[in-house]
Design brief:
Layout: H1 2-21, E1 30-34, E2 48-52, E3 65-71, E4 75-84, E5 94-105, E6 115-121, E7 167-171, E8 181-185, H2 188-199, E9 203-210, H3 212-215, E10 221-226, E11 238-243, H4 247-271
Bound molecules: calcium ion (2 copies).
């Protein structure tokens, strides 16, 4: 029995040594998705809301859609998003990120042309609020306020964001079909922003807007996306992050697995 235990321990050490000798393989990165009501848990919330310059104090936090674009009123519309990324394992290096929005409808009166939408990081937090599609002046996030009261204004109306582009996409607002998946695939700056938020167990605040050249043009281009309140849960905004499990934590898992294996073997022996 003692000889058998010694053999088991030797085998376990050998397995662990072999495991640790294998360098971390980016192809074995893990994925975690953040999506309201779905993932990582059913209780997860990922606030999103439209802000618009022609209804500067109005909050649309509970609307089923978020809107991005420009009207000929003229009005500029942007959408803000918040993702708490504290469920990414502490210290895990992040190597990729995608924000996925889903088109809820096309806009028949928009210009038919490719339009560039851009993703940036907000430098201040916001509170979502419960304004519906009609909007409500409730002090929560709007073109002018970041909330939770009208006393808390953005530094600049339309949201305070870092000028570093995190990702962009191009689509035609008139012809894009409902259900189209719009993926903002992260530039290195997007990955860095999520890494910083993960390291701080914090919430990442984002804004999607039309390119500046479009926001200043006198054309209508409007995109309708499903929001975090959308009853079609599959359409809700989703942030998917790819990370490499830390070698240290992987070793802990390996040691745990070896321990379990040893216990199972002992259990089998005892039963004989
Ligand atoms: Ca919500
Ligand atoms: Ca919302």
């Amino acid at each position: 029995m003692a000889r058998q235990s010694a053999k088991l321990i030797a085998a376990a050490i050998g397995t662990l040594a072999a495991f640790l000798a294998v360098p971390a393989d980016p192809a074995q990165a893990s994925l975690i998705t953040f999506k309201e009501g779905i993932s990582p848990t059913g209780a997860y919330t990922a606030p999103s809301a439209t802000i618009r310059s022609d209804q500067g104090n109005n909050n649309y936090g509970a609307d089923a859609i978020t809107i991005v674009g420009k009207t000929t009123t003229p009005a500029v519309l942007r959408s803000v998003y918040a993702f708490d990324v504290s469920d990414i394992p502490d210290g895990a290096p992040i190597d990729g990120a995608t924000l996925r929005l889903t088109v809820s409808s096309s806009d028949g009166t928009s210009i038919s042309a490719p339009i560039t939408l851009e993703l940036y990081q907000l430098s201040a937090s916001f509170t979502e609020g419960a304004g519906n599609s009609s909007g409500a002046n409730n002090g929560n996030v709007s073109w002018n306020f970041r909330g939770p009261t009208s006393a808390t204004t953005w530094g600049a109306p339309g949201g305070d964001f870092s000028p570093t582009l995190l990702a962009s996409i191009t689509a035609n607002p008139r012809t894009v079909a409902p259900g189209t998946l719009v993926d903002f695939v992260g530039e290195p700056a997007f990955v860095s922003a999520i890494q910083a938020a993960s390291d701080a167990n914090a919430t990442l605040y984002l804004v999607v807007k039309s390119a500046a050249v479009v926001e200043s043009a006198n054309v209508r281009e409007i995109f309708f996306f499903a929001s975090d309140e959308n009853t079609n849960t599959a359409y809700r905004p989703a942030l998917t992050v790819s990370y490499v499990p830390e070698p240290a934590s992987a070793a802990v898992v390996a040691i745990g697995a070896i321990g379990l294996l040893a216990r199972r073997r002992r259990g089998t022996s005892a039963g004989r």
